[in-house]
Fold:
Amino acid sequence: MDLPLPNANILSRKSAIVRRLQSVLPADAVIHDPAETKAYECDALSAYRCPPMIAVLPSSTEEVAAVLKICHEEGVPVVPRGSGTSLAGGALPTSDSVILGVSRLNTVLETDYDNRFIRVQSGRTNLSVTGAVEANGFFYAPDPSSQLACAIAGNIAMNSGGAHCLKYGVTTNNLLGVKLVTMDGEVLEIGGPYLDAAGYDLLGLICGSEGQLGVVTEATLRILPKPEGARPVLIGFNTNEVAGACVSDIIKSGIIPVAIEFMDRPVIRAAEAFTKAGYPDVEALLIVEVEGSDGEIAEQLSRIRAIAMRHDPVEFREAKSADDAAKIWLGRKSAFGAMGQINDYMCLDGTIPVSQLPMVLRRINELSAEYGLDVGNVFHAGDGNMHPLILYDANKPGDLETCEALGAEILKLCVEVGGCLTGEHGVGIEKRDLMGAQYNATDLTAQMAIKDVFDPKWLLNPAKVFPLAASESRRVA
Ligand SMILES: Cc1cc2nc3c(=O)[nH]c(=O)nc-3n(C[C@H](O)[C@H](O)[C@H](O)COP(=O)(O)OP(=O)(O)OC[C@H]3O[C@@H](n4cnc5c(N)ncnc54)[C@H](O)[C@@H]3O)c2cc1C
Structure:
C-alpha cells in the first residue's frame, strides 16, 4: 500500500510547528516525542503503520479551530481521529501529518426527550450515547460491533452501521446536525434538532465523508424510545447458499426484522471455541431478531419460522429468556475477536443485492480455494452488507499481498453483481485504489471537486479515498 512521500520541508519545521501548537493547547495535548506518537501509528487495519509527526488532543471546538488554522497556515496535512477502530485505515497517518484526536471531546451537551434528540461532543463513544439516555427509556440506534470503543466522530465520518440497522437505518438516518470545523479554522453549524434543514443536504454530504471535508466536533443525534421487547432466533443450515436464500425470502416477504446476521462454519467454530455460546456445528447460521409487543413478536416469528422451514433448517432455536437471547448474540458479537485468535485477518466490507447472496458466497469459496487463504463470513445479511474475513499470516512473506489480491477480487465481485465497494467501513486507504472499479474518471473528478470546495489545499486526510494517481495534481499543488 503506497503512501505519498513525506514532505521534507514540513518535517524540517517540526519544532516550530510544535511550538505554535503548544501556544494554543495545554502542554499534555501536544504529543511530539516519537516514542509517544507511535501510539497513533495505525488504526484497526493494523497491517499498515506509520507514526505521525505530531498528535494533538484538543478539548473544545475552539481548540480544534486553532489547531486547524495553524496547520492550514503551515501547509501541514491533518488526519482526524476518533477512537482509531477504522478497519479501512481511515485514521492511518502520514509521517509528515498531525493526528487530530477528538477523544477529549466527550461531553453530553443537551438531551431533549420531548423532541427526541441528544447533542454530544463528537469524541463520545457510541455506546455511551445510549448509556446517557437509557435510564429514561431511550436509545441511540446505530450499533457497530465496536460500539464500546468507537466514537460518534468516526461513525459520522464512515456512516457506520451495525447489526440493528436493518430496521433503524445507519448513521446518516439518525444524524440531525453537526458542528464542523473546516481546514482553515471556520466553524460551521449544519442541520440541527429538526427533521429537514433548509437548503442543500450538506449533512448528507458530511456523513460518510471520511474526514475529507472538515473536523466534526459536535453531533445532534436522534434518540428513540426503547421497544417493548425483542427476541432473536438462531437458524442453522447445511449450506451457505440455502441460508442466503432464506435471508432473501424473509426480506421478500416484507417482514422487517430488526437484524438478520449471518455466520459461516469457520466463524461459527471460532466463535463457539471463544465464547461457548452453544452454537450448533452447522455450515451456516442466521440470527434473526424481531421486536415489538409480545403479540407482534409472536406473529413475526411464526412467519419467519414458516419461511425457514421451507429451506429445511438443521436447527431453529427461539430464545425463551433474556439469558437465551444474550447467548445467541454472544458468539456473533465476539466473532471478530474470535477469528483474531486463529490468525491475522483482513475484514472486507462490501454490499450486494440480497438476492445475490447465494451466488456471491459460492464464488467467495471458490476464490478462497484459488488463492489458498481461508475466508470466514460474518455479516449483516439483511441489508446485503458482507464482511468476508480473510485469514493470513502477517509474518509469512507474501501472505499480506495474496490477501490484498484476494480481497480486491471479492470487492470487485460485489460491484459486478450490482453492489458497492463499501458497506459501512468506508474506503480509507484499503479500498482507495479500487475506486476505479466502481467509478470512472469523470465520477472521481466530480467527487474530488467537492473536496476542492471544503479543503482547497487538500490538507485533510489527503492520501485516502481517491486513488493516489487521480488526486496527485491536487495534493501536489
Ligand atoms: C472489532 C470491530 C468491529 C467493527 N464493527 C463495525 C460495525 O459493526 N459496523 C461498522 O460500521 N463499523 C464497524 N467497525 C469499524 C469502525 O469501528 C467504524 O468505522 C467506526 O465508526 C470508526 O470510529 P472511530 O471513532 O474509531 O474512528 P477512527 O478509526 O478514529 O476514524 C475513522 C475515520 O473517521 C475520520 N474521523 C475521525 N474523527 C473525525 C472527526 N472528528 N471529524 C471528521 N472525520 C473524523 C478519520 O479521519 C477516519 O477517516 C468495527 C471495527 C472493529 C475493530
Q: What stands out?
A: Residues 43-44, 79-87, 90-91, 102, 122, 144-146, 150-151, 153-155, 157-158, 160-162, 210-211, 215-216, 336, 424-425, 428, 461 surround flavin-adenine dinucleotide (CB under 6 Å). The first helix runs from residue 8 to 12. Residues 230-336 form a domain with the Alpha-Beta Plaits fold (CATH 3.30.70.3450). The chain has 18 helices and 20 strands.
